[in-house]
Amino acid sequence: MYEINIFSEIILGQNYKEFYSFAKKFREEKDIEKQMDRLIMLKELEDDVLLLAIAKTEAIESHYDHSKYLAAYVALMATYLLAFSRVVHPMIAFLLTAGILAGILYGSVLEKKKRVEAVFLKSLLTQIKNERNKK
User: Fold this and answer.
1) How far is CA 50 from CA 18, 28, 124, in A?
2) Fewer CB within 10 Å, N- or C-terminus of the chain?
3) Is the sign of the CA dihedral 57, 60, 62, 67 positive or negative?
4) What ranges in the chain are assigned the alpha helix state H?
5) Residue 50 pLDDT more than 70?
């Protein structure tokens, strides 16, 4: 289990991989007791650290949100297909364009997992912040 000062260091540090790793382990934890211990630890964070954690989760969420680029990817690939089909056989142009687009979409799907972890942790942190504001 992470101790609160170690988690604070992860939040305050610039290493997004450690932060993502914590979020992933937290969400995928099957042991309810360990989940509750980590939740209690999150509730014990100082206000400043809590705000930084929320900001970091929002940054990760925004960084890995590729849905806003999907229309641009498709338009760019359609343009590429039209231009490339004039140089080579249209079927070859289509297959190359489809392969490139499939690679982009595959990368987006892989990175979406990081966004899911950030959204999960952000939700918990925001609820903790709201609980504190009510008191």
Assistant:
1) 16, 21, 11
2) C
3) negative
4) 4-12, 16-28, 32-43, 47-63, 70-85, 90-134
5) yes
The Cα–Cα gap between 78 and 55 comes to: 36
The answer to whether the beta carbons of residues 53 and 61 sit under 8 Å apart is no
Number of neighbours of residue 6 by Cβ within 10 angstroms:
13
Report the distance separating Cα 92 and Cα 130, nearest Å: 55
Separation of alpha carbons 76 and 130, rounded Å:
43
Write the pLDDT tens digit of every residue in 51-101. 888 988 888 888 888 777 778 878 888 887 788 778 888 888 888 888 888
Q: What's the rounded Cα separation, in Å, for the pair 129 and 43?
A: 9
Give the CB-side neighbour count of residue 56, counting CA atoms within 13 A: 25
Among 77, 59, 34, which Cα is nearest to 121's?
59
C-alpha–C-alpha distance, residues 57 and 53, integer Å: 6
